[in-house]
Write a structure and sequence with these properties.
The protein has 4 helices and 9 strands. It starts with a strand and ends with a helix. The strands form 2 sheets. Strands 1-8-9-2-7-5-4 form a 7-stranded antiparallel beta sheet. A two-stranded antiparallel sheet has the order 3-6. It has helices spanning about 10-15, 30-35, 85-95, 125-149; strands spanning about 1-5, 15-25, 40, 45-50, 50-55, 60, 75-80, 100-105, 115-120.
Length: about 150
């Protein structure tokens, strides 16, 4: 599994309840660009439209050597998942404060690009501060244990 890009900011801004792996419909030059690691999913989100799931605001840079078609880097891309998975997701997405956030893009062994989506709830400011304090205290503890040895 080759990871193309990760959304580290999502874990800071959201509580991730559940994750799922979905496929993505890409054009040829976009695949080549992804293989080069030229993607940004920081502002991306997935949304239902007409019973299908689409990915918005994910920037995949145009491939430099593409000659026949230059795609819009921010175009809306269709996500692929089974109907029963989609039905489960529809019920959860209609709750207030729930969003689908892309967590990472990667290639699996057979060469297909996949996206890991997270069912996310927004964190409050005090939750973010509390998480940072916990992270800092763990770092300090590890540092003191390492220095003691």
């Amino acid at each position: 599994m080759k990871i193309v890009c990760k959304n580290k900011k999502a874990f800071h801004d959201y509580h991730i309840d559940k994750t799922m792996e979905v496929g993505i419909v890409l054009k040829g030059p976009e695949v080549k660009s992804l293989r080069g690691g030229r993607a940004n999913i920081k502002d991306g989100y997935a949304q239902l439209k007409d019973g299908e799931l689409f990915l918005y605001n994910v920037h995949i840079s145009p491939y430099a050597f593409a000659v026949h078609s230059v795609a819009d880097p921010l175009r809306v891309r269709k996500l692929l998942l089974h109907k029963r998975e989609l039905r489960k997701l529809i019920g959860k997405l209609h709750e207030k404060g729930v969003a689908l956030i892309p967590l990472k893009i990667y290639f699996i062994n057979n060469g297909k690009a996949k996206i890991e989506l997270g069912l996310a709830r927004g964190k409050k400011q005090y939750d973010k501060r509390h998480a940072l304090k916990e992270k800092q205290s763990k770092r300090d503890l590890q540092r003191t244990l390492r220095d003691r040895d």
